[in-house]
Amino acid sequence: MMKRFFILAFAGLSSFATLAAAGDFRLPAFETAKLSNGLTVYLMERHDVPLIAVRAVLKAGAVSDGQQAGLANLTGDGLLLGSEKYDKKTVDQTFDFLGARISSVTGAEQSGLVADFARDDAAKLLPIFADMLQHPVFEENEFGKLRARTVDELRQAKESPRNVVQTYYRSMLFGDGAYANPVSGSLTSVAALQRSDLQAFHRAYYRPDNAALVVVGDFKPTAMRQQLEGLFGKWRANGELPKPRANGTVTAPKSRVWLVNKSDAVETTFLFGGAGIARNDPDYVQLQVLNTILGGRFTSWLNDELRVNSGLTYGARSEFSPLSQTGTFAVSSFTATPKTEAALALAASTYQRLWDKGIDAATLESAKAYVKGQYPPRFETSQQLAGLLADMYINKVGRDQIDHFTRDVDSLTPERAKLLVDKHFPRDKLQMVLIGKAEAIRGIAAKYGEITELDITASGFAPTTVK
């Protein structure tokens, strides 16, 4: 009898996203399994198109960088430079010739390798994918070019404040916590990284007990399990996982403003808010409805007031940005420098409507219908579903949150909305980041809290330390 290498944890009843008779959205059926070496595997069959999406996800993002900001990101990108069996030229030519795609993804808490290809090319491309993940070489010359490109991209990013305002915001809110680490790193930290640093990071974090493999698409489960076991089953952990640094929590003892000077700016980019929620928070779904009203769609309060009614900006929004343990919330927009005071005041007063006027039944019903219409299309393709399963793995999200989406939306009432607003939307001691011409907006900034000044030309995203 063949040794059984997989432990099946779940198997559903359908192979694609469904809407039940009552209109409920349902996560497609999938299996959770483990290879002989402990690697977690998610398998989701979808036979509507002859394509396969593969995603390897590691619990190793910017929070694992330590004092070498950008290390996880550069290591992830370095996987694409070739492996022991396949050099970069071979990888690029093979995927391009077959019309397939491969890329890396790094975030605050995860790194990953992502590939999409035709079903009939799986036997050829999966071995390349596996070798790139397990045995990257970080070839010296290619690594040097990658590092130089990354430094150039960091420098260019600061030319557009909207690209970096969230990075300053997380640094402000989380301080010394690992959640403050900039995913892409800083100019000086990335420039200092060496090939040996990437090799050490890969040895420490790229291991089967710290990873999951997601396969979604047109395949036969038995054959796919056998192929994955052959390709990944000999992957072994090297020593103990490094002890994680504390991620940190948002502390806001008083209202504060980080004023980031961009001396040539002709507009002000601003963002204010405070603590948010974790991705697996039980209120996550209903908060998406409330945020839709405030700043999550074109007809939201913020966009109506700041763009449509006053013409102060081309767009305004609000957003919960969840992480695995906590998160942030922010209202954000941008405006011409002379209009900074008016735009900030209008954004603040519009945000205050959550408490001053609340959310009436008609507004709530409109938002609920909008959210229910927008949700299912987010998980139609194999790539989208692979991303969802990876997100569930990293953030410990149970399938109940997805399967009960429609129920949670429909059960939201104006009374429940008021409780959620009071519980989750930061109201007092707001934290603010302003990026613009400091001499023109310093007096305005002082109205919103204690000011700390930075300059956008500095390497990092914090007042005194380079993260």
Tell me how many strands there are. 14
Largest sheet: 6 strands, mixed
Please report the first level of CATH classification, the CATH class of the largest domain. Alpha Beta
Question: Which oligomeric state applies?
Answer: single chain
Helix count, per DSSP?
A: 17
The count of domains is: 2
Looking at CATH, which topology of the largest domain would you report? Cytochrome Bc1 Complex, Chain A, domain 1
Name the beta content range: 15-25%
Name the CATH superfamily assignment of the largest domain.
Answer: Metalloenzyme, LuxS/M16 peptidase-like
Give the integer mean of the pLDDT values. Answer: 93
- Cα(first) to Cα(last) distance is 54 Å
Low-confidence stretches at least 5 residues in length (pLDDT < 50)? 1-22
* Class by alpha and beta content: alpha+beta
CATH architecture of the largest domain: 2-Layer Sandwich
From the alpha carbons, calculate the radius of gyration and give it in angstroms. Answer: 23 Å
Side by side, the strands of the main sheet go 3-4-8-5-7-6
Keywords:
alpha+beta, globular, 17 helices, Cytochrome Bc1 Complex, Chain A, domain 1, 14 strands, 467 residues, disordered N terminus, 6-stranded mixed β-sheet
Q: Could you please describe the fold and organization of this structure?
A:
By secondary structure, this protein is α+β, with helices and mostly antiparallel strands. The chain has two domains: 18-232, Cytochrome Bc1 Complex, Chain A, domain 1 (2-Layer Sandwich); 256-455, Metalloenzyme, LuxS/M16 peptidase-like (Cytochrome Bc1 Complex, Chain A, domain 1, 2-Layer Sandwich). Helix content is 40%, strand content 19%. The chain has 17 helices and 14 strands. It has helices at residues 71-78, 88-97, 122-134, 140-157, 161-174, 187-192, 195-205, 221-232, 284-295, 301-309, 340-356, 361-374, 382-395, 399-403, 405-410, 414-424, 438-445, and strands spanning 18-19, 25-26, 31-34, 40-45, 51-58, 101-106, 111-118, 211-217, 256-261, 267-275, 316-322, 327-336, 431-436, 450-455. The protein has a six-stranded mixed beta sheet, sandwiched between helices. Strand 11 and strand 12 (327-336) form a beta hairpin. Helix 3 runs parallel beside helix 8. It is globular, with a radius of gyration of 23 Å. The termini are far apart. Residues 1-22 have low confidence and may be disordered.
